[in-house]
């Protein structure tokens, strides 16, 4: 799915047919995030596919991610409820914390606060406060697996050491120009599955 820009679209007229075609051709992993601004379209499309009787929810592996401005536990829980509603599902197969850089959330908005220079305002929220929310939903069965994306090895190790439920998955950029051999070895040692994004390089998207 990563090879087709239509599958990253926020336009339902583009994304819906692309996603349906991908599923018809055998794709079963749907990787999205709140920041991609297409969870609702994906949820609607999957419901249409289920109603056609070709696939069921159990056939699809849905992965989504918590935005960086919702690391505060109460914000995280509120966002998770929205994401479940958007995707029209009562469980997520893999839920990740999207970025290891918490930012303050705008009051009453699903967006990050910025200063007068347009820069993000950092939020001093310990990663474990957010991770415990993921553990809670994992124990409830709402998340079938949990993990991290775009974190440093040092921060991954800290979370791993303190976590009751260890991260199952890490998603990060990895391709021929950024092979990440050291990270792969580090994650393998911790028995965390490494999923690459942009495996043929981010430069590819400038060419299509």
Automatic annotation (TrEMBL):
<dbReference type="InterPro" id="IPR020471">
    <property type="entry name" value="AKR"/>
</dbReference>
<dbReference type="InterPro" id="IPR023210">
    <property type="entry name" value="NADP_OxRdtase_dom"/>
</dbReference>
<dbReference type="GO" id="GO:0016491">
    <property type="term" value="F:oxidoreductase activity"/>
</dbReference>
<dbReference type="InterPro" id="IPR036812">
    <property type="entry name" value="NAD(P)_OxRdtase_dom_sf"/>
</dbReference>
<feature type="domain" description="NADP-dependent oxidoreductase">
    <location>
        <begin position="8"/>
        <end position="201"/>
    </location>
</feature>
<dbReference type="InterPro" id="IPR018170">
    <property type="entry name" value="Aldo/ket_reductase_CS"/>
</dbReference>
<protein>
    <submittedName>
        <fullName>NADP-dependent oxidoreductase domain-containing protein</fullName>
    </submittedName>
</protein>
<dbReference type="Pfam" id="PF00248">
    <property type="entry name" value="Aldo_ket_red"/>
</dbReference>
